[in-house]
Design goal:
Blueprint (H helix, E strand, L loop, with lengths): L18 E2 L4 E2 L2 H12 L8 H28 L4 H25 L1 H15 L8 H5 L1 H18 L2 H7 L11 H10 L8 H21 L4 H42 L2 H5 L1 H20 L5 H24 L2 H10 L4 H10 L20 H8 L2 H7 L10 H7 L4 H12 L2 H4 L4 H13 L9 H16 L9 H13 L9 H6 L3 H9 L6 H15 L11 H16 L6 H9 L11 H16 L7 H24 L15 H24 L2 H24 L26 H11 L2
Helix pairs in contact: 2-3, 2-8, 3-6, 6-8, 6-9, 8-10, 9-10, 12-13, 14-28, 18-22, 19-21, 19-22, 19-23, 22-23, 22-29, 23-27, 25-26, 26-27, 27-29, 28-29, 29-31, 30-33, 31-32
Family: Belongs to the cyclic nucleotide phosphodiesterase family.
GO molecular function: 3',5'-cyclic-nucleotide phosphodiesterase activity; metal ion binding
Protein name: Phosphodiesterase
Length: 733
């Protein structure tokens, strides 16, 4: 899908993390110093314990082999100056290199502990051992250089230059040099330049001494060539190892910069809040059934747990960090709207999951359940992103919810999987549908629409292989029930007007939390509690509790006041098909699934999106009319006389819908969602921007006889919104 260009944020590259690929050094000296300290504080990053021991052992063994050779010659021949020189140099090199090796590998740990202790006592004080830590990789590379020099100076050619009594039994230095080279190929980090310099010096020294022996020039050239190849390989391996260390550090720094530190520190706190809220809910459920003398202690416990939950959410700063990022480029009206509507200013035994299976035989039997024209529509569920729920509503005679619900129970084999009673399914869906009010937006058509959106996302991502039959049952019930009984007003409106719903919620939950969402849960499970509508009756106790928890969690996630809380927790985690085996992680993804589906119209084709946008706008305007009549402040974008619809939709799509879909698809990594959904949101933004520029000053005060949309883009008008939304409603009734 071709995306119409629209203004986007610019990603700024971090210039401080640039490196010179010739020297493998950071261009910024402070970053270079930070890199060395980072690697020194994590010794396992550049050498494991077993590797360190092996290097030290084999390093010593190589020198000891040469020492043993010279010692054996002492017993076979008279002591010469050459032998004394060889033994002295080899033993001295063995001791020195071991000391250097110890300083390089072990002293950094001691220094790091001492430095940490000093910094705790005095953060501004520089550690006495910082120089040792900073140079630890140099000690190790220098031990390699010293050992190699000693071996070269003890070769027969070097002895000819020093002593007249040549020791012909001296071992050739070439095997030792090759062994040391491979041994140290990945022993250190940040010493690539030194290793290049050391190898050049060693090769020149070895070449000079070998070429000096003119009676075997061909052998000398072959030996030099062999050592040259070995050193080239050594340098390449060292380069690769240093580059991997640099990339590890850069990845660490980038993750620190992109993740709000406070958010990550408080993720566990946010997760615990959900568990506390679950406890509060369970206590409220048992409260009516307990004896009178136990009610007061339970009510007191609920109050204390509620305070703990509120304190915890107060400390959670994820919402603020994301809200600050979004609000930085907003005008005052958009800020007020987001603060009012999209921020919160106001364990079970899980059975082994099984891959969901579509009922293959259903397609041939659809005519048994639905009329032909309805069959053609419902067959698009989970396949067509731009599923037309308005058409479904019209063709089914105002029964979109019960129709799509019945179809999905069959499509995903839910009925057979749990031996559900079909008559109870029909009665449950029918009662649920009738419990929806005739609002412009929050109605049964919307419920059917978001289920279709969710099933498309599941079908076109790895979720299709991760969700069990029980999960799908929970998804279907939660999506169809998520707005049941919605009065057409926001939570904020109900609380400000002290509506009966808000007062009831306040009695049981306190602080007017998720007034509507708790009501939706209550109505859904009240219907399920009726004997002839209890579709969950065949489930065992564990299955029922699991479905109940998942349904409630998903419905509560649709509270707009929790939007930035949930998004903040979700967007900095890496979910995949393997991680969804964990129930809590799967529940996080399902919360996001219902959220993106709930505003699915934002990513639908432009005509579908505009229809839904006009309906939600009319619902807002009706709320604004009541607020005006009651002499109360009118909520942002609820005043039909001042609201510029194009502007409000641009803010919603850019600041709410697009980040939400991008976060979801960062998890799902679906090309279908990228092309069908995210690109379409960008197209819808561009379309509203075009209309805003051509109709910027118009509101409903300038009612004109022309229709809402004309065939010519240049004459598009956003007037007559009320009459057009009424037309949409009447058309599909």
């Amino acid at each position: 899908m071709k995306v119409v260009p629209y203004p986007t944020s610019v990603i700024v590259e971090n210039q401080n993390l640039k490196i010179n690929y010739w020297t493998l050094k950071f261009l910024n000296r402070k970053i270079e110093s930070s890199y060395v300290k980072y690697m020194n504080s994590r010794p396992k990053a550049y050498c494991e314990k077993q590797k360190k021991l092996l290097i030290q052992i084999f390093h010593s063994l190589i020198l000891l082999i040469y020492t043993a050779n010279y010692l054996s010659y002492i017993y076979a021949n008279s002591i010469s100056k050459s032998i004394i020189f060889q033994l002295t140099l080899i033993i001295f090199a063995l001791i020195v290199t071991q000391v250097l090796f110890y300083l390089g590998f072990y002293y950094s740990r001691i220094e790091y502990k001492i430095k940490s202790k000093e910094q705790m006592q005095n953060p501004n004080k520089t550690s006495l051992y910082s120089l040792v830590s900073y140079k630890n990789s140099y000690y190790i590379s220098f031990s390699y250089f010293c050992a190699s020099i000693v071996l070269i100076l003890n070769c027969p050619t070097a002895q000819n230059l020093i002593f007249s009594d040549l020791n012909d039994s001296a071992l050739s230095c070439l095997p030792g040099l090759i062994s040391l080279s491979f041994l140290y190929s990945s022993a250190t980090f940040n010493s690539y330049n030194l290793l290049v310099l050391y190898n050049i010096v060693l090769l020149l020294l070895f070449g000079f001494l070998n070429l000096y022996q003119k009676n075997s020039i061909s052998t000398s050239i072959l030996e030099i060539l062999l050592l040259f190849i070995i050193y080239i390989i050594h340098i390449i391996l060292a380069y690769i190892y240093d580059l991997e260390c640099l990339q590890e550090y850069i990845s660490c720094k980038l993750s620190e910069e992109t993740e709000p530190k406070q958010l990550l520190d408080n993720e566990e706190n946010a997760s615990n809040n959900y568990k506390v809220n679950d406890c509060i809910e369970e206590l409220n459920n048992v409260l009516p059934t307990v004896q009178d003398h136990l009610k007061f202690p339970i009510e007191r416990a609920v109050g204390l747990l509620t305070n703990i939950s509120n304190d915890g959410m107060g400390r959670y700063s994820g919402e603020k960090s994301i809200l600050d990022q979004i609000s930085s480029n907003l005008d005052e009206e958009d800020k007020i709207y987001i603060e009012q509507s999209w921020s919160n200013n106001q364990c079970i035994n899980v059975r082994k999951r099984e891959k969901i299976q579509l009922k293959k035989s259903l397609e041939n039997n659809l005519d048994k359940y639905f009329q032909l024209d309805i069959v053609l529509i419902v067959k698009q569920v989970s396949i067509n992103w731009n599923f037309d729920s308005f058409d479904l509503n019209f063709k089914t005679g105002l029964k979109p919810l019960s129709t799509i619900g019945k179809y999905c129970f069959k499509l995903y084999n839910i009925t057979d999987a749990f031996s559900l009673v079909e008559s109870k399914i029909d009665k449950f869906l029918s009662k649920l549908e009738k419990s929806y009010k005739s609002n412009p937006y929050h109605n049964a058509v919307h419920a059917a629409d978001i289920l279709a959106s969710a099933l498309y996302i599941i079908n076109n991502s790895f979720l299709s292989s991760c969700l069990s039959d029980l999960d799908m049952l929970s998804v279907i019930i939660s999506h169809l029930s998520h707005d049941v009984g919605h009065p057409g007003f926001t939570n904020r409106f109900l609380v400000n007007f002290q509506d009966r719903l808000a007062l009831q919620c306040n009695l049981h939950i306190d602080n007017d939390i998720s007034v509507l969402e708790n009501m939706h849960c209550s109505i859904a499970f009240s219907i399920l509690a009726e004997e002839d509508k209890n579709v969950l009756e065949p489930l065992d106790n564990d299955q029922f509790l699991l479905v109940r928890k998942m349904v409630i969690d998903m419905i509560l996630a649709t509270d707009m006041g929790k939007h930035f809380d949930l998004l903040g927790i979700f967007r900095f985690k890496n979910h995949n098909s393997k991680s969804l085996e964990n129930f809590e992680i799967k529940l996080e993804v399902l919360r996001m699934l219902i959220k993106v589906s709930d505003i699915g119209h934002a990513a639908k084709s432009n005509d579908i999106h505009i229809n839904w946008s006009l309906l939600i706008t009319e619902e807002f305007f009706r709320q604004g009319d009541i607020e005006k009549e009651s002499k109360k402040p009118v909520s942002m974008y609820c005043d039909r006389e001042t609201t510029i619809i194009a502007k409000s939709q641009i803010g919603f799509l850019r600041n709410i819908a697009l980040p939400l879909y991008e976060a979801m698809n960062h998890c799902l990594a679906s090309s279908k969602i990228e092309n069908e959904c995210i690109d379409q949101i960008k197209n819808n933004i561009s379309a509203w921007e075009y209309r805003f520029k051509n109709d910027a000053s118009r509101t409903l005060r300038d009612i004109q006889p022309t229709g809402l949309l004309s065939e010519s883009p240049s004459t598009i008008s956003l007037q007559g919104i009320k009459s057009h939304s009424d037309a949409i409603l009447s058309k599909h009734k």
